[in-house]
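Please annotate this fold before class:
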Amino acid sequence: MVETKLAAQMEGEPDVARHRLEFLASHGGPFFELQRRFNLVHERNLHTGRRILLFVAVAWLVPLLLTIPTLVSETPTVQAYLTDPGPWARFFVGLAAFLAAERAVEAGLRRKLSQFLRAPLIAPASQGSAIVALDRALARRNSFLAETVCLALAVASALLAFATFKQAPATSWAATVTGEVRHLTLAGWWCVFISIPLFIFLFARGVWRHLVWAELLRRIARLDLRLVSTHPDGKGGLAFVGEYPNAYVLFIFGVSCGMAAAVAKHQMQTNLSATTLTTIMACWLLIVLAFFAYPLSAFSKPLATMKDRTLLTLSPRATTQQRASECKTIGENVIAPDADEAGQSIDPVDLTKQYEQTRKLSSMLVNRKTLLPVAAAALIPFAIAGASRLPYKEVFSVLKKLLLI
């Protein structure tokens, strides 16, 4: 009923359709509703700054405060906490990046989705199907089961962290070792039950919502799209879609900070070679690019089909036009002259430029130039971690090579 009503609005009221076709990636779902009830967010305002202060205080500041009483003990742990890259990267920078990314992602995706109708790229006959696809995506975004799975992953991460802390070889801010007995400190318990699960939950929730968006894009790619081979963007009018990953720069940066912290901690215990660091960075970059290439690859088929059909249409017309021009210029056709053909009029529209533009059209929306910001966000934290032990010039050289591949 709702889908039929929205489809009718799209056919009769383009402005309403443009308003309705939006995917608010950070709204909806049990976690958003929970935050709304505590007045942390509003339907029209995510209150990003306020939530960053609250979440960072809960995840990073509370464990710090819990280490302060150890100043009067024989083994103070405040300095150990402040010099550990893990809490800084995950609970301070990482959580702040995740929350700041919500607004950037929501604004970026809404702008890209609305452009499909503003162009307009979706054929009128397919606009109803676009609304149905959007309704499905919103239902998945709001899924209780999906966020339950994200919560389960967070709990699993807490159990893993507990096992890791309990196996600590020496006293740290998270655990104390007395003989053969290991005990978690108050800060350690807080990180196990609060900080780490919060980081993993926001990470998993962000990944799930991107997968929902990815499936929405793939469904749109299967609709009848009004593409044109001579569009100045060189992508048939779809180049703007290939730029959407840049909305995820902060999210990828937050994830990379968490992973780079593990690399930095490993470097503190054993020396990490430049070759190993390069391998880690290259593998992570491939994972990030694949993360965004999955939805964008769906548009390769319609672009390739349009290019092929356009060239097949232009080629015979260009042949007829150029032979008529040749006959008029030199009096006859050099190859296979035909008397009936000599009397044909010349089409005044030169197809040369259109044919050349079509021939150069790329069917791939993924390229190094458009994904450079998100690639930099993925690699810079690793470069910073590597530069703490390896020569700066060597690390910078690796970073530069990977970004220019």
User: Anything to note?
Assistant: The two ends are 50 Å apart (CA to CA). The beta strands are 175-178, 181-184.
